[in-house]
Amino acid sequence: MEIANAKLSREGFEPERKGFVSYCVAYILCTRYGFDTRSFNFDDAPRKLEGMSEKEVRSLLGTVRETANDIGQDMSRELEAMDKARRRADRDAR
């Protein structure tokens, strides 16, 4: 969530929506990488989206998707590099 917050802040995303977007991004990434998501609760989502036009909601959800994909790609690269280094260390230890 903090990584999403920082990314959105750098991009000048409006502060009043940033927390909700970051929460959604965290949920998506936890789901994608197999972390427990039972503590996530989206009961207040309708209130968060209240007063927004359909176009604004689509834009917000697009931002969620883009941010999750960007962070997910970075995570995948890092995890792959860590896995490669671990396999190299295992091989060298033999």
Distance between the termini: 40 Å
> What's the shape?
elongated
Structural class: mainly alpha
Estimated radius of gyration: 17 Å
Topology (SSEs and partners):
Blueprint (H helix, E strand, L loop, with lengths): L1 H9 L4 H18 L12 H5 L4 H40 L1
Helix pairs in contact: 1-2, 2-4
Describe it for me?
It is a single chain. This protein has 94 residues and is mainly alpha-helical. It contains 4 helices and no strands. Helix 1 crosses helix 2 and helix 2 packs across helix 4. The radius of gyration is 17 Å and the shape is elongated.
Looking at this protein, list some descriptive labels:
94 residues; mainly alpha; 4 helices; 0% strand; elongated
In short:
By secondary structure, this protein is mainly alpha-helical.
